[in-house]
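Much of what follows relies on a compact textual record of a protein's fold. Here is one such record, which you should read through line by line:
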Amino acid sequence: MLDVGVDRSLPTASAPRAELGEIFTRRWVVDLILDLAGYTADRDLTSVVAVEPSCGEGAFLVPMIERLLESAARQDRSTEVLRSALRAFDLSAGNVELARKLAMSCLVDAGVAVVEAQTLAELWITCDDFLLAGPAERSADFVIGNPPYIRLENIPTERTEAYRCRYPTMRGRSDVYVGFIEKGLRLLTDGGALGFIVADRWMHNQYGTELRRMVSANFSVDAVIEMHDVDAFEEAVSAYPAVTVIRRRAQGPAVLTQANSAFNPVEAARLRSWTARGRSNRLRRPAFSAARLPGWFPGDELLANRRSDPAGDRC
């Protein structure tokens, strides 16, 4: 979830939502990210591990569970194999409690016994700091979500020092989401995908230098959708958001999209379809302009020389 500057490094269950600075992602945006990352029910999701690093009230978690259950039904898998398929974290005990209830509801609606549903919900969802207690490196096939956006100066010094010690990309006046990207990328297995909606300032600003170098050296930027003016969240927020999909593999073709305020579920479906078809290199519509690039920008040039108008074909 995007945090617009409020210190929520040590939230409490009773803290009001506004005080936590929580901004939740609309369902159609979540579905777009899941599709672009490849977390789709037509594949065997019971055989992979997905991580949601900051689950909030379940904006990503619930659709992920629904897709996991649909996949399990298609594959005729038992609930036993679901235990290691999903991991979710949040610092707020209140959010964890609600997320577990939502998970249980999804499971029970799918025919899972209440006791097993409770067991799965408790196994899946942990109240802890993802950056300090998350999974081991190369242990996840997907890392998907909306990480917090908090300036390090708004976090207690001890915790800030712990973050900086563990995550070399968190330099200068960094934001916590930089650490979430680094941690998420380190979790990925070969071919694994990270799909975030996150502020795109790391692609432009000095504090993102080390993260840009890490990405260009070891990963493939598959898709970036700039959504600065898009109604992507349940509440109004100005944080320069971008859907970003990065995969652990050699850099291949990348889709760069600039969406405007007209971007909506219908236009998202058109973009998703065009991205999957791969028949043309450019697409321009009133709601967005997209280009399929042969690669991505290395290191400090990640977005410095990007095309200002990835426009072209209309459909």
User: Anything to note?
Assistant: The first strand starts at residue 50 and ends at 52. The chain has one domain: 21-297.
